[in-house]
Design a protein that fits this description.
This protein has 30 helices and 17 strands. It is α+β, with helices and mostly antiparallel strands and 807 residues long. β12 and β13 form a beta hairpin.
């Protein structure tokens, strides 16, 4: 049996007189649903748990469900229908019901217990053992306290030495005592390390003087010079008809060329007052034709570039500070690098001087090709690599920034040294106390075991020990740490501990992890085959980190889709006697966590053919909130389905593959919304655009600007302002300024805010114009990758006269 479709919802939150679009053909066995905030996802999950949505079902809801063989379909219109016995929903309401958040206790899991007669007999024996253990504990406790006093006195002596020497450093003052020393015992310095340890040097570091930060120069180097360009100029020759006299004496050419320019409007020689014939002037003009002048201009331009680069290189070494301003450990390395820079600059200047000399020779005799020496060919002269020097300066500045941390490190090393000096004496005393501790710990362990057994026996219908072991093992795997532990206690409940103490305040993520494990385990304790159940999971990792996302995804996949592990957590084939996890009849995984959506989407596309044949078909959906006109001039948000394909329809797989990057998805979602608006958007189109502005476009711009302005990562307002300042279009700048003022301070999506804003379409155009302005190549490639027409995103924006007409 499974849910085939949700036909109608009369009146429940965002669903008002709602029905799915006619193109939606229903659900599958495995349904992966992605939805942004405010789209109705959690509301839908709540409706699938009638006790959580009584008012919604009173107003009217209709589902189409099918039988085991999917051949017969019937409608479910009542919250009391027997169909709901097969449905399990995991959401925030389930977590709230699963835990007492103030006391941190969870419900026990049902298992099979022993008979009453066997239980009573064992209870009498176990209670007698518990009484004897209590008497033994008193004796052992006194002995342990006595033996612990010796090592504790040694710790106090070390603490006194540390505070008397390092008392001026934070963390080593009056609050530093034997307990502080005890925490550092595992880090005691070994005898080998102590033999080479310089106590005086480390004390000096602990009391070292602070050196100011130095300014890291920002090298401004002239444009680079390519020898290939110079070589081409040296090899060129003018196409002019040469005069023999000037060809024989090229050194006279510059003088004669200047004379030609002086006599353009005169036939009398300014030098000898003789007459210049027309034939002579024409011959000189042919000698100094356009090709000659063009070659001269190219050579002078190249000489100017060489001179500028020479000048900037000459001043470069002097922009770096003196090595004496750095901490001693950086001075030698810095001086060596600075000398290398000077040597490189000297070498480059020498090469540039030689190139300049060759070009000057070429200017003196343009008609003679000059060959560039082999060692200068195909070279590029530019700014030398000063990164190693700046890295040293940054290290120095970082040291100054971390001055207190360096001093604390020296203090920690001294602390480890002094603890190591006393370790031999301490270990001997500690061994005695450990012997007593071990006896006391063994008594506690036996006492805990006896109490747990008594609690187990007192409830014949419960056996919480195996579930507690299962929960602890999985919980530690999911959270990546073992500080949280659950133990069975009286009252058929679990006590939750953090580092051995009652965990009175669990975080939201810890509660979600425990609830998810409890939920998965409980699916096998309801007296019904998992294959006959329908499981709905709503945002299982909404408040947790990426590590838990992967772990939770694996847990749900193994439990609900593919048998991959034994119920005890071991690989299939272990001999514990438990069965493999089994896939359930129908799965709905709803999430706004794109990482979880991406992982499951990948796995669904890679389902083996044999698995799909066993009624394991799937469908990938998106629940979107789109605008719908309800009356003249009024529209509201309405949830609607978008089909991303299934195991039967693979046409959308290529697009799904590209959209598995959240940035690609956001770009595509914003672009398709804008394209649908066209040149004359309706009120529904304007609302669709306005709906995605606070969420989709904000996240799209955050992703794009974080790569364009990495130094301002995390400061969206500053990144936006930098991008806006680089725009030339006044209208686009103004739209983005309005957007910045509207949304730059929002930290979460405000889905109840009014969205009927005509300027939303204009701002959407401006968003893509900003991306194109910042990185046109990136913008074009994104459009090509997603099959979008880039002209519809930026070229269709209304012109200033059109906007004024609209206004």
């Amino acid at each position: 049996m499974r849910i085939e479709n949700i036909r109608s919802i009369k009146n429940f939150r965002i669903f008002q007189d709602w029905s799915p679009p006619s193109t939606f053909d229903g659900f599958s066995d495995i349904n992966l649903i992605y939805a942004n905030n405010g789209s109705g996802k959690s509301t839908l999950a709540t409706l699938l748990s009638p006790p959580q949505s009584i008012e919604g079902w009173k107003a009217g809801v209709r589902l189409d469900v099918s039988g085991p063989d999917s051949s017969e379909t019937r409608s479910v219109v009542s919250a009391q229908d027997s169909f709901w016995d097969r449905v399990s929903v995991f959401n925030k309401a389930y977590i709230a019901d699963c835990f007492d958040f103030e006391s941190g206790e969870a419900k026990a899991l049902l298992t099979i217990g022993k008979t009453n007669a066997d239980r009573e007999k064992e209870l009498r024996t176990t209670r007698a053992q518990l009484d004897q253990l209590a008497r033994d504990y008193q004796t052992l406790e006194k002995e342990t306290k006595l033996k612990q006093s010796v090592p504790n006195s040694i710790l106090k002596g070390i603490g006194t030495l540390v505070t008397s020497t390092l008392g001026g450093v934070e963390g080593y003052g009056r609050g530093y005592d034997s307990r502080s020393v005890s925490k550092q015992l595992p880090h005691a310095m070994t005898a080998e390390d102590r033999s080479t340890f310089d106590v005086k040097t480390e004390i000096a570091k602990a009391q070292s003087a602070y050196l100011k930060k130095v300014e890291v120069p920002k090298a401004s180097i002239a444009s680079s010079v390519q020898t290939a360009t110079i070589e081409a100029a040296l090899g060129r020759a003018p196409t002019a008809r040469l005069l023999d006299a000037l060809a024989a004496k090229p050194e006279h050419s510059a003088w004669v060329q200047k004379g030609v320019d002086l006599h353009e409007d005169s036939d009398t020689c300014l030098f000898c007052t003789g007459t210049l014939s027309q034939e002579r002037m024409e011959a000189l003009t042919r000698h100094f034709d356009a090709s000659t002048r063009e070659l001269q201009e190219d050579l002078r331009l190249l000489i100017g570039q060489v001179e500028k680069l020479d000048a900037s290189l000459t001043t470069l070494p002097g922009t770096f500070p003196d090595s004496g301003l750095l901490y001693p450990e950086y001075r030698n390395r810095y001086a060596s690098l600075h000398q290398a820079l000077e040597a490189q600059v000297e070498k480059d200047i020498k090469g540039l001087t030689g190139l300049k000399k060759l070009m000057e020779q070429k200017l003196d005799n343009l008609h003679v090709a000059i060959s560039l020496p082999r060692e200068w060919r195909n070279r590029s002269y530019g700014g030398p690599n000063v990164k190693p020097l700046t890295e040293v300066l940054n290290e120095h500045n970082d040291r100054s920034s971390r001055f207190d941390a360096v001093r604390k490190t020296a203090c920690a090393r001294l602390e480890a040294y002094w603890i190591g000096e006393q370790k031999v004496a301490y270990v001997q005393a500690l061994n005695d106390s450990k012997t007593a501790d071990a006896a006391l710990a063994a008594n506690r362990k036996k006492t805990d075991a006896a109490r747990s057994r008594i609690a187990e026996l007192e409830d014949a219908e419960l056996d919480p020990v195996p579930p507690a072991k299962w929960l602890n093992k999985r919980l530690h795997t999911l959270l990546g740490r073992s500080d949280i532990r659950v133990d069975p206690v009286e009252g058929n409940r679990y006590a939750i501990f953090r580092n051995g103490e009652p965990a009175l305040h669990l975080s939201e993520g810890e509660c979600t992890a425990l609830a998810l494990l409890y939920f998965v385990r409980s699916l096998n304790t309801r007296g019904r085959n998992l294959r006959d159940q329908i499981v709905v999971i709503d945002d299982p990792v909404s408040s947790l980190d990426e590590n838990f996302t992967i772990g939770a995804s694996s847990l749900l996949w193994a439990a609900l889709v593919q048998p991959s592990v034994c119920e005890c957590g071991a690989p299939p084939g272990c001999r514990c006697g438990q069965k493999l996890t089994r896939d359930c009849g129908q799965v709905f995984l709803m999430t706004h966590n794109f990482e979880l959506f991406r992982i499951w989407s990948n796995q669904l596309d890679r389902l083996k053919e044999g698995v799909r044949k066993q009624r394991r078909s799937f469908k990938i959906l998106e629940l979107q909130a789109q605008a719908k006109k309800v009356e003249v001039g009024v529209a509201r948000r309405v949830p609607t389905w978008r089909d991303w394909g299934s195991d039967k329809d693979r046409e959308d797989k290529a697009l799904r593959t590209r959209l598995r990057s959240e940035y690609h998805y956001l770009f595509w979602r914003a672009a398709t919304t804008l394209i649908s608006c066209g040149e004359s958007p309706t009120i529904e189109h304007e609302m669709d655009a306005a709906i995605i502005l606070p969420n989709v476009c904000r996240r799209l711009l955050e992703g794009f600007l974080s790569f364009k302005f990495p130094a301002q990562m995390g400061d969206f307002r500053v990144q936006m302002q930098m991008a806006i300042d680089a725009m030339d279009d006044g209208l686009t700048r103004q739209r983005m300024v309005n957007y910045l003022h509207q949304y730059s301070h929002q930290e979460r999506v405000e889905t109840t805010r009014g969205v009927n804003r005509p300027e939303a379409v204009l701002i959407l155009h401006a968003v893509f114009e900003l991306i194109q302005n910042q990185d046109a190549k990136h913008f074009t490639q994104m459009c090509e990758a997603l099959g979008l027409d880039s002209h519809l995103l930026v070229d269709n924006a209304p012109r200033e006269d059109e906007e004024l007409a609209i206004a």
